[in-house]
Known about the structure:
With 334 residues, the protein is mainly β. The chain has a single domain, classed as Beta Barrel (Porin). The protein contains two helices and 14 strands; from the N terminus they run H-H-E-E-E-E-E-E-E-E-E-E-E-E-E-E. Strands 1-2-3-4-5-6-7-8-9-10-11-12-13-14 form a 14-stranded antiparallel β-barrel. A hairpin with an 8-residue loop joins strand 8 and strand 9 (214-225). It starts with a helix and ends in a 16-residue tail after the last strand.
Amino acid sequence: MKSIKAYLLFIAIAFLPLLAFSQERGIPVYSDYLTDNLYLIHPSMAGAANRSTIRLTARQQWFDVDDAPSLQTLSLNGKLNDKIGVGGILYNDSNGNFSQQGAYATFAYHLLLSRDRIALNQLSFGLNVGVMQEKLDETGFDPTDPAIAGIEQTDSYFNVDFGMSYYYLDFYSHFTVKNIIPQNRDIFDDIETDNQRQYLFSLGYVIAPYGSDWSFDPSVMFQYKEETSEASIDANFKVYRDFDFGSLWGGLSYRRSFDGAEYTEDLSTVNNQKLQYITPFIGINYNDFMFAYTYTYQANSVVLTNTGFHQITLGYNFGESNERYHCDCPAINN
């Protein structure tokens, strides 16, 4: 009996930091932004690039686990004129008996601070307005438990994200606040806080040796949840190689949480582990098309399975490119 209790306690506590960043309202923040898809998490990037873009992503965790987390997104963004950008996102996120579907509409305003359109110096603002529906399927649960309704519960709500981006030549930074408006989810019977506010901050610099077809893009991203004070940081390194047909690129991302969860295997020794993700990715831009593959390895001491997370991103760029800034800024010069 003692060993069973220890095992259950071990399972319940060890995976708390692994679930903390996946059960998010709205689109979970994974590594999508590294595969030419910054708009997915930063609304200020809607229409920031020279051309319009369509991106389709499909992410699946743990192929050997039933009802494992999965995420699909479809996004479109472009500019109406030199200053105004618009976009839209559809997504489906599921994890076991819980799922959510949603749609975002985005308005962005881009302020060019330089005197001409050769030297990039741009400050952008973006606003997302989203409508989400969440489902909790309790039809397969124990009906004798009075806390279980035994039905499929649904709840709908809306929320707002706000973001800012700044590009100066080869330097860039982003700041986004997700889920600004407090909202209660009735399907959780008020046991969950209504504050789901999350902050994202990232910065990077593209290094391109003179006369070389290679460029290098080190960056970091910090995310923080206000109510629970959960925090994590991504350290990223991306490499580009230009060709006549487009570019080949890839890189590596390392995510680590600042918060650990205590667990025990024998009810006498207490250990601590923090979320750690190692994510290699590779992609290609061929003329107007883009394809990328991402694999995430969970590097914690205790994991549910070692099969990792897989994601594919497909993209298409369209519209006329009327300007090219004199900078190595792939997110703008597409």
